[in-house]
Amino acid sequence: PGLKGKLGLNVFKESGKSHIRIREGKEKHPQLAKAVLVCPAGLYSQNSKGEVTLSSDGCLECGTCLIACGRELLDWEYPEGGAGVQFRFG
Ligand code: SF4
User: Fold this and answer.
1) Pocket of ligand 1 (CB under 6 A)
2) Averaged pLDDT, groups of 10, the chain, 90 residues long
């Protein structure tokens, strides 16, 4: 099996639908800088203006960014009513 097989079924979404978004107007919120640090897939980046951007290609759906930043900053749409993703706290 290739890499894809090892990673399992749900790791990479191939639908291309972005389900995590930075809420409008929150791009410069200092708390968002945490997401840049914690995202294991390195999907957040901060530009020289202090704005954080997110590319959701390759998102692992680990939920870390949501835990770090909260729903006031991030809008997370569950693909299937929340059934698909398990959060691990701690
Ligand atoms: Fe990164 Fe995980 Fe957030 Fe996806 S859910 S953007 S992989 S921290």
Assistant:
1) 20, 39-41, 43, 59-65
2) 50 57 96 96 96 89 93 81 55
Radius of gyration of the chain (CA): 13
Domain 15-76 in CATH 2.40.50.100? The answer is no
Ligand 1 atom 1: residue of nearest CA: 39
pTM comes to 0.70
Closest Cα partner for 54 from 83, 20, 80? 20
Domain ranges, ordered by start, for the chain: 15-76
Contact status, residue 90 vs residue 67, Cβ threshold 8 Å:
no
